[in-house]
Write a structure and sequence with these properties.
globular, 2 domains, alpha/beta, 365 residues, DNA topoisomerase type II (double strand cut, ATP-hydrolyzing) activity, Dna Topoisomerase Vi A Subunit, Chain: A, domain 2, single chain, nucleotide-binding, Arc Repressor Mutant, subunit A, EC 5.6.2.2, 41% helix, six-stranded mixed sheet, ATP-binding
Length: 365
């Protein structure tokens, strides 16, 4: 009886199956091709049922009929060969290393001219194989995102499994999210909800004030636009542990898009929305309404801010009475504000007053 393939075996088999397709095309006398969704903003659609961004029906074809097309497919073959060997040896590498490693490849046309090119090729392989890059054992540079809160887990590492409590077994910095959160097994938790926080300063304030302990919150540092690993872990905490997810950001249009990427996915990673997006995630603030109610310190909106807000009024992710009211209010007051502006009422205001009141009004605590 054959055993169930591991994720790594499956990833390797799918990659080699792609290479086999090219060989079969050659063998039958056809020009090798590879079909991909057109990766442009005009081919991104909002799936109303799933509430996430996905690719549309438009596709483009990479063909060896042209010199440039043949070079792209050559790079695909070399990359598949490298990834298959990497998986066979149970090794891993970074996206940056792949770019430099290509310089040692035998044929000059197979080498990458930039890291953007190698990054995009890895994304292409994710799409056509339906395998995430983490299963290729490819990782970005460290994102540094961390978790603090009442959660005990088991993490698989190349030095063996280890059990960690994300409060008792870590320092003030918290537990660092691994590149592939699917290597984590949740053992037990006393968490009431997940609080995703945009800035490191606010994350540190919440931890220093003991917010995670007092409210049984899992505080996840987003670190600005959140990395894939951060969004994947957040989705797993929601889906597998049944925890509500709330997102706490600055009060500006770019921060609202950070919330949007957690909740609905991003255009860049539309092919991974089913793995990364948490559509039930809620926005806790800073709201334009808060800027007015608390008379927070502010900066005027730049032209780029105004354009972004107006764009969000037409963005399917923000098509609700709540967001329409908040965005129109922000355009009216012509102001934006940061999370740290809440400190104008004292260092304890955010944990003693602002978040408890907002989360209570939302039914989270």
């Amino acid at each position: 009886m054959s055993s169930t393939p591991t994720p790594e075996t499956s990833a390797r088999e799918r990659l080699l199956a792609l290479a086999d397709e090219f060989y079969d095309q050659f063998d039958s006398g056809d020009v090798p091709t590879m079909e991909l969704p057109t990766r442009t903003k005009t081919n991104i659609e909002y799936d109303e049922d799933e509430r996430v961004w996905v690719y549309g029906d438009r596709t483009s074809t990479r063909s060896a009929k042209t010199v440039s097309g043949a070079q792209k497919l050559l790079k695909v073959i070399y990359t598949i060969d490298f990834l298959a060997d990497q998986l066979d040896q149970d090794r891993s590498s970074t996206l940056r290393e792949l770019y430099y490693l290509s310089e040692s490849w035998e044929l000059d046309p197979a080498q990458f001219t930039s890291q953007d090119e190698s990054n995009q090729l890895i994304e292409d392989l994710e799409i056509v194989s339906d395998v995430r890059r983490e299963e290729f054992h490819m990782r970005p540079e460290e994102s540094g995102a961390k978790v603090m809160g009442p959660l005990r887990l088991r993490e698989q590492t190349n030095r063996g499994d280890r059990e960690i409590h994300c409060q008792h077994d870590v320092g003030q910095g918290g537990y660092q999210i691994p590149n592939d959160p699917d290597t984590i097994e949740f053992l037990d938790n006393d968490a009431a909800f997940v609080l995703c926080v945009e800035t490191g300063g606010m994350r540190d304030r919440l931890v220093e004030n003991g917010f995670d302990d007092e409210y049984d919150a899992l505080v996840v540092h987003l670190g600005g636009q959140p990395a894939r690993a951060t969004r994947r872990l957040t989705k797993r905490l929601h889906d597998e542990l049944g925890l509500e997810v709330v997102v706490f950001t600055d009060g500006d249009p770019w921060s609202y898009r950070i919330y949007g990427s957690v909740a609905y996915g991003s255009i860049k990673s539309a092919h991974l929305s089913k793995h990364l997006a948490t559509p039930d995630a809620q926005f806790v603030g800073v709201q334009p309404e808060d800027i007015v109610e608390y008379d927070l310190p502010t900066d005027p909106l730049a032209d780029s801010d105004i354009n972004a807000l107006q764009s969000e009024l037409d963005d399917p992710r923000f098509q609700s009475d709540y967001w329409e009211e908040q965005i129109e209010l922000q355009l009216e007051i012509d102001k934006k504000s940061e999370q740290q502006a809440l400190a104008s009422y004292g260092l304890d205001f955010v944990t003693d007053t602002y978040l408890p009141e907002r989360l209570s009004a939302m039914g989270v605590v």
